[in-house]
Amino acid sequence: MPLLVVGTVALDSVETPTAVRDDILGGSAVFFSTAASHFSKVNLVGVVGEDWPPEHTAMLQSRGVDTSGLNIIKGGKTFRWRGKYLPNMNDRETLETHLNVLETFDPVLPASFRESKYVFLGNDSPKNQMKVLDQATGRQLVIADTMDLWIKIMRDELLALLKKLDGLVLNDSEAKLLSDEENLVTAGRKVLELGPRFVVIKKGEHGAMFFSRDETYVLPAYPTELVIDPTGAGDSFAGGMMGYLAEKQKFDPKTLKEALAYGVVTASFTVEDFSLDRLKTISRRDLDARWNEYRGMLSF
Amino acid sequence: MPLLVVGTVALDSVETPTAVRDDILGGSAVFFSTAASHFSKVNLVGVVGEDWPPEHTAMLQSRGVDTSGLNIIKGGKTFRWRGKYLPNMNDRETLETHLNVLETFDPVLPASFRESKYVFLGNDSPKNQMKVLDQATGRQLVIADTMDLWIKIMRDELLALLKKLDGLVLNDSEAKLLSDEENLVTAGRKVLELGPRFVVIKKGEHGAMFFSRDETYVLPAYPTELVIDPTGAGDSFAGGMMGYLAEKQKFDPKTLKEALAYGVVTASFTVEDFSLDRLKTISRRDLDARWNEYRGMLSF
Questions:
Q1: pTM reported for the whole predicted model
Q2: How far apart, in Å, are the Cα atoms of B239 and each of A82, A189, B100, B169, B283?
Q3: Pairing with B55, which of A178, A186, A242, B1 sits 20 to 30 Å away (CA)?
Q4: Is B80 an 8 Å CB contact of chain A?
Q5: ipTM exceeding the 0.95 mark
Q6: CA quadruple B72, B74, B76, B77: dihedral positive or negative?
Q7: Please, which residues bridge with residue A14 across strands?
Q8: Is residue A79 within a helix (H) or strand (E), and if so which, with residue range?
Q9: Residue A102 and residue A121: Cα distance in Å, rounded?
Q10: Which of A197, A200, A292 minimizes the C-alpha distance to A252?
Q11: Contacts of residue B220 in chain A, CB cutoff 8 Å?
Q12: pLDDT tens digit string along B81-100?
């Protein structure tokens, strides 16, 4: 049973201290799908404009991603984001955001997608995320991402959504903002009280923290020297994690922790090149090898 | 065979967002000794002034720390440091530093200390650290700390010292400064090329990274909600690590990783109260219990 993802499909422009790339393939649903495609079939729902290069769709399809939920809006322009990374390659500033077709995006699931058991609600307004949830009638595990904007301007809708989630994935600054707590452990536990059965706080180059009623743990990032472009690391993390869960068709605590480790490892490949350039060229064997190495690093 | 530490003995004044403490017990050698005393006897070398409260010496002695190397300078004043933590409890600013008796500190090891096999050179000028090294004729494992000041004003002396070390422990910003690299993995490997057989980069609330010719790994910090005062966490980390090595009387890769984990766990207790208030009241059983819990967190 394919994994469902609803999220952004974008053309990113990325500036790093050593290079610039314009209009390269990006977006939460694209990073997520490509990451998850190493483990599972994926159903993608998103929206693009007439300027969308069809070879991107072909690439996703070749990886087992069903793109029948990708709407191409006539006369519309694809969502564009432009960002610049600071020399530490962890912090970035957004230079431009052009929502374009995203502005009026009203997610509708193709009938065949509604029975998806594993659902990822990529970063979007909580209103749209709730709409997807309502259509995903076969859902068994729903994990969502969010961002500072929605925490600030649509908090009530977000709080309503949180009560319906299995898992929430968010980054450290978002967790602090949502909980009004500076300590990340306290922040994670407070977010947990808002409804989800588990919470994952992404800490970029410092890894990820997991919180459930019964468990709290931290997994560091895989230590890599090769950080070319961190864009999409968070969505690749989520894609690797949920892809593994969808493959195993279970999400008990043990499988969840293994899945988080696959998320860490998948993200570590994403940052090794621009866009999907690294993630789409590695094999499942590469992921497994690094996952085993990572597991060894953490055992003593 | 006791573990030797040479470092600062201080009266700290600490301001956190919720409390202020004046003239409380601190200093690298004190945090290190107290941490290590859970595992091993400790020989301490340091200097204080006439204003030094004798009950601090008594406390250290009661923990198996030999203070015969603690010089009390007549008419002198003890080293004082005043710092203020930002709300995130990870970053801090130094408000005042009064070197006092430290200014003319010339470390001399009591004859009985010279045969110590395990030696920790707490943060001090590389000149003084080298002097200690030359006197420690029985040394088998030498680990040193350093700081940004020495990297900036005494780089040549520091580079000479690095070639004689087994291990160097430094924090992330110091590693970047010393290597002129932003990526911490690259920084760690470059520092390794400067001479030490292994390098440990401390990342505060994000844990620690280990580098040797054969291994690179990261251990996250133990996730704790209770962060009252982070002062001394780095020295407690080093003390827990070296205390464990001194107890085991070996430092093969497996033992080193176990020791690093004890360092992480020891530091996690230190931050739970001001000064040594938490570290001196816990037992070895508390350390072992948290170490086992931590190991479980990282296994999947």
A1: 0.94
A2: 46, 31, 25, 11, 15
A3: B1
A4: no
A5: no
A6: positive
A7: A21, A83
A8: strand A79-85
A9: 15
A10: A197
A11: 206-207, 218-220
A12: 999 999 888 889 999 999 99
